[in-house]
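Ticket closed. Logging final result for GntR family transcriptional regulator.
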Amino acid sequence: MTECGLPIRVERYGRGVSAERGDSGGAEFERVLENLRGRITDGTYALGALLPPQRELALEFGVSRDTVQRVLRELKSERLVESRQGSGTRVVKKPIHSLTRPQDDPLIRPTLAPFINRAFAQRDVRLDVFTLTSESLDAHIRMQALRIRAKEIPPPERIEVRLLLPATSMEFPYLRALGVKKAADGLDEAPPLDRLQERVQERFRGISARHTSSLRASLIDLETEGVVPSARVEIRQVPVAPTFKLYLRRNAEALSGPYEVLKRTIRLDDGTEIEALDVLGLGSTLLRYVNDEGDPNSTGSVYMESMQAWFDSCWEHLATPV
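Final structure:
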């Protein structure tokens, strides 16, 4: 996917743990996944449209059929496509966290891209975020850094991001292995359930660390290189398993949305397939609330005040710095 003539990586952890996205998933897998998801997002493959046959996709991207099949499984796990034997793979949904939707398009549902665009249109950027991982935010922040460097938007005078994440050491009610569906080839028996659960948690910790590091570097580098006068990213962990995601522009607006819990098949790096409880965040519905300075009793104003107070209380009393 590209925007402004520059490549943008759109990464996802489903708010979930897909084995197709593990550290050993490979650059080719990521490249094909991002391209196909981008085409779904920008309408190249419209709702109801069939994707090209696997053989054509393999030839176009110069990858194996196995890689294409893994990508299609990931898109299916994101509920963006459905596959039927003999009927091909059809688009059934578009990502709500689209990077490519223009800000001035009429929106049926709020999305993250316009929210982040509005935040970075200010001279003083202040964002408070509570989420399972920072994957969606990381992609959008990197997009804004590219726009600033390309002088498409004026550089803010100050950027301040506070990121509140669940403690990686805690045990989640989701991200949980339920049982083995298919053992890996060559294994006499499947790994025990507790080991499968450890691998699920290891992947979660790795993905969380990778995206927080990427997000922090994207903004701090702007200050280090003198592109913006001040950029600060503070990350803390809280012993709370998120049931919703929350994005706050202090005293301005908020986006929030629930994580949908689902049972899904996860294919681990060695080929073992397990049934697991996961959460889906990429396609979750986001709700927007706007602070009404003329009416402190409006729904938006009350929501903003209460959720900001909730965030600040967790930040001060429960969270620990990373």
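The helical segments are 27-41, 54-61, 65-77, 112-120, 135-149, 193-224, 299-317. No further action required.
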